[in-house]
Specification:
Immunoglobulin-like; TIM Barrel; eight-stranded parallel β-sheet; Beta-galactosidase, Chain A, domain 5; ten-stranded antiparallel β-sheet; binds alpha-D-galactopyranose
Amino acid sequence: MLKAFTMAAALTLAAWSAEAQPSTVSFDSATQVFRLDGGNVSYVFGVNPRGELQQLYWGGRLGATDSFPAAKPMPEWASFDDSYTNTPQEYPGWGAGLYVEPALKITFADGNRDLVLHYASHKATEHGFDVELKDIERPIYVTLHYAMDPETGVLARSATIENRDAEPVTIEQAAAASWALPAGKYTLNYLTGRWAGEWTLNQVPFEHGERVMESRRGSTGHQANPWFAIQAGAADEEHGEVWFGALGWSGSWRITVERDQLDAIRVTGGFNPFDFGYVLHPGQSLETPVFYGGYSAHGLGGASRVLHLYELKHILPRTEATRGAEMPRPRPVLYNSWEATEFNVSEAGQMALAEKAAALGVDRFVMDDGWFGQRKNDHAGLGDWYVNPQKFPHGLKPLIDKVHALGMDFGLWVEPEMVNPDSDLYRKHPDWVLRFPGRPETEQRNQLVLNLARPDVRAYVFGFLDKLLTENDIAFLKWDYNRNWSEPGWDQLPASEQKDVYVAFTRNLYSILAELRQKHPKVEIESCSGGGGRVDLGILRYVDEVWPSDNTDPFDRLTIQNGFTYAYTPQVMMDWVTDSPHWMNNRATSLQYRLLSSMQGSLGIGADITKWTPEETATAKRLIAAYKQVQPTIVQGELYRLISPLNGSEFSATETVRRDQGQAVVFAFIHSTQEGRGFPLLKLEGLNPKAEYTLSAIEGKAGPDTPATASGAWWMHHGLAMDASFKGDFQAAAFRLDRK
Ligand code: GLA
C-alpha cells in the first residue's frame, strides 16, 4: 500500500509543537461534568440524573471555553433495550438490565448478583480525578482513576474495587475501563499471531456483534496482543481520526469491542473473566490493571507516534544511569549466542564468540540458555540455577572478566518461573507448580509452571536472581517464559479462592521485577516469551526491551516489526541479524539485507560469527558503526511507515525523524522486483519544509539526479528517488538526512 501524501501530513510535526497546549482538568459542580484535556485530546464525562457516570466525549481537543450540559441518559429503545444498557457508562455494573459487557460483575455471599454503581464523590489528582462510585444499596465501592498525560493526551484509567461489607464477595469480571464511541462507520485494527508469527495487523470493518481479543493462557500470549485501534471510516496510515488503547496486564486478559444494536461502540478491557473469580474479604480491595487510551487525527501512523512517545516517557523504566532522564537510553548493540550454539555453551566457545563480537563493535555479550543445572537440552535443568560445573568449571567469572576486558558488558538468559520435572527443584518441591492434585500435570517443552503466587516460590525466585546479580557482574537479564498455563490450581488455598492465582501470579512477577531493579539499579531486563509472548504495557513498566519473535528471518521480520510498531516503540524492539539461509523458511539473503532489516529497531547479532568471512565481518562492522550514529533517531524518533510490507507488497519503506526534525533515517526494501518496476519515489514525511537537509547513503545509492542537499519541502514533495540499479530479490537500502 503506497501512502497518499498531503501538505497536512507534512506539517504534522510542526503543527504538533505549535498546537501544544497545557493540560487542564476541571469539574463543573453545576452540571457535574468532568473534563480532561491533554495534548490534542479532550475526554469528558458527567453524572447523569440517575447518578450514573456517563461518558460524554472522547476525541480532538475542544475549545477552552466550550462547555457541556449535564449528562442525559440515552432513551430506551422500545421495551427491549432499556436506558441503562443504552447509556455509555464509564464503568457499568452488571445489574438493572445491562446487555452490553459490564465493567464489573459481582456475586454476593447471599446469592445476589445485582450491582448498580452510582457516583458517590471525587477528588482531583495531579493530572485527573479519582471518582468514587458505590452500589445503590450495598457497601461495594469502586474508585475510578483517571490520569491525562499533558503532552500526548494519553489517558490512563484503572479501578480499585473495595468490599466494605461484612461478608466476602466474589468478583466474576472486572475491567480496567470501558471506552465508548458514538454510532458511526469505523475500521477495527488489532494484532494477532502465533509462535514465530507474531504481530499480524488485522484491519476489519466494524460490524455488529462483539469481537473478543484475549488470552486465557496465564500470560499475555502470542495469539493476540492487548492493543486496539478504531479508525473513523477506512483504515488509513496518515489520515483520519483514530482512537486506540493498550492494556497493561501480563496475565490472562480480555478486550471486547462491541457494536451494540443502536450502532454505538463499547470497548471493555481488563482481567479475563474466563475462569475468573477473585474473592474480596471484608475490608479488602482489588486493583485492576491500567488501560491506556489515546486519540490522533493523523491516522494509524499518528496514533502509534503518540503511543510511542508516551511509552518512552511514562512507561519504560529508568536505570541508575538514566534516572530522571526524559527518555531511556538507546539499547546497547548486543550479541546473543542462542542461534549459534543453542544449549551447547562452554567457556571456550563463548569466549571465542565474545572476541568476534567485540571486533564487530558489539556493546553487550549475552549468553543464552544452557549454562546452568543439568541443562544439556530442554528436558532438564530449569529450576536449578547454579552454574553447570562441566561447562564452566571456574564459574561465570572468567567469561565475564573476558567480556569486560573486550569492552562489552555481560548479559545472561534466565527462565525464572519454570521448572523441568527432571530437576533438583522439582524433586524437592513437587507442590510448587500450578496443578490440581491428583490430575496429570501437562508438560509443554518438557516443563511446568512454578506457582509464582505462592509466597515460598516468590521468595525462591527473587532469592536466586538476587544472588546471581549480587555475585556476578551482570548488566542484563533476558527473562524468558516458554509455555502457557495448564491446570491452573493453587492448592494452598481453599477451593473457593484458588482462582485468585490469575491476579496474584502476575502481581508477584511485577513485584519481583520491581524489587530486583531497586536492589540492582544498573541491571537492564528483556522480556521474552518464546519470542513476543509477553509484550504489553504492564511488563514494559519493568523491562527495558522485549524480544518480538523467535522468527529472525529478515524478510518475515519486516512484517513482524511493522505490526509490532503499531503498538510499541522501536526502542524496545530487539532485532537480531542471524545466519543465512534462515532455518524458518530456508531463505537466503545478503548480510546487508539482514542488517538493514534489523537496524529498524534495537540492533542485535545472533549469528555464528565465528564462521563469518573477513568481508562479512567488515560489512557488519561498517553497518554497526553507521547504525550507532543514527540509533537515537531510529528508536526514539517519530516513525512513518511509508510503504507497508503487508499484502504481498513488492516494496516497503520506513522513515524515522528525530523529534527536533534535525535528522531522518530511511529504510527501503524490495521483496521481488516484478516486470522491471523500479522502486517508487519515496515522499518523506515529518521534515521541516524550510530547513535544508543533506542526504547520505548508509547502504545503496540514490538516483543520479538526486541533489546532495535540498529543503525538507523538496524531500517531502518531490521525494527521494532510488538508483535504477536498485532491483532484484530481497534488496535493501538505507539513507540518512541531516539538517544543515
Ligand atoms: C526461547 C527464546 C529463544 C531462546 C530459547 C532458549 O525460545 O525465545 O530466544 O532463548 O528460548 O531455550
